[in-house]
Amino acid sequence: MTQTTPTATITFSDGRREAIELPVMEGSMGPDVIDTRGLGQHGLFAYDPGFVSTASCASGITYIDGDAGLLYYRGYPIEQLAEHSDFMEVASLLINGELPTASEKEAFVGTVKRHMLLHDLMSNFYRGFRRDAHPMAVMVGVVGAMSAFYRDSSDAFDPAQREVAAYRLLAKVPTIAAWSYKYNIGQPFMYPQNRFGYAENFLYMLHATPCEDYRPNPVLARALDRILVLHADHEQNASTSTVRVAGSSGANPFACIAAGIASLWGPLHGGANEATLQMLEEIGDVSRIGEYINRAKDKTDAFRLMGFGHRVYKNMDPRAAIMRQTCHEVLDELGLNDDPLFKLARKLEKIALEDEYFIQKRLYPNVDFYSGIVMRAMGIPNSMFTAIFALARTAGWIAQWQEMISVEHRIARPRQLYVGPGRRDFVPIEQRG
Ligand code: SDX
Known about the structure:
Order of helices and strands: EEEEEEHHHHHHHHHHHHHHHHH
Strand order of the largest sheet: 1-2-3
Bound molecules: s-citryldethia Coenzyme A
Number of strands: 6
Number of helices: 17
Largest sheet: 3 strands, antiparallel
Radius of gyration: 24 Å
Shape: globular
Distance between the termini: 57 Å
Mean pLDDT: 95
């Protein structure tokens, strides 16, 4: 350590060990970190299940300040990107590190468009699923199967192959997601149209049929594009950490993103948008809000207020505020201002935010609280909400995977606090019991 490197000293009250000095690392923003890599030399591990206070990496992609409710992609505030940018530009920013120039953006968008088609044999995978297969189950399977079709872009250690894989994933995940819905409802798959923008194309593949011309409503396409921007990345959340851990072994990019999709599906993570809508439909009426607020506070009841709370945000999730505004715009456009679920959600938010339990535990609406209402109003089925979250987060997963694999990384291999039985000899079965 140089003289200027600040250090943290650990002393042991039982006197069994010498004091340990560890370097303190400072980032460009946010909390400093104690570099605990040297603990192993002292026969010690850091213990932090759920990684509540653990930085798993150094990253320059997304910054969150949970107390202030800030979210920056490569330094740009989410509010500005949601208002002035679009998903393709944000995907390029996250992956390449800078906002693209006009010609760079045109090239990026053009390359993504030319990769949106799937290898035609991939459509056979769908017929192996039950008709009612959840789109996330299909996405885990079909995205993972990309490794069998795109082997010329599966070497994680080849920068050129990484770039092709990034485009293929960004471009094909919307097609795979839309086709999982078409398979659910028994309609033919619709091929992407290069005349459409990214969000427009997804709505086209979701709602069009071969029987008539279909052009997505531009207000809804813009709203969906903004939803994709809001969900594009979020530093080291569970699914991104899953992608990083999978990628640390050198696994191919398609398998890593499939692992991220699997993790995102959980109701405590990306599955919360679907669960929030189911919760609102179950509550059904403003008169029942109190009953559910009490259940959320009851430690003997496993029920949690879906769409509320966050590991990092102890203030309003900035994405939730933008999502609420988007909700207004979409419901306005569709003449659904009296949408009972939106009114119920607003009332639930108000009551929860005034409740001592939620105030004391600093539980606020998160990105999933309003997103389901917006997507439902747009005619997107509940089962597709998390698939759309996965579609958007693919941009962030790619950026995080690229960052991990392109720096001096090591295979992720946490240690443990062992609490099992001590050494003991085998007991033959006739001597047991
Ligand atoms: C996403 O990490 C990310 O960045 C994720 C995400 C992203 O963009 O990638 O932002 C996307 O996943 C948003 C979160 C969506 N999930 C939900 O809306 C599900 C409901 N919320 C929770 O289950 C919970 O808040 C988590 C999972 C989001 C956070 O869990 P933590 O950080 O482990 O917090 P915790 O479970 O330890 O809760 C702390 C306390 C507990 O009470 P005590 O044990 O201290 O008495 O708050 C309580 C919890 O019981 N609590 C809730 C609650 N969330 C937390 N009580 C009622 N309802 C809730 N929603």
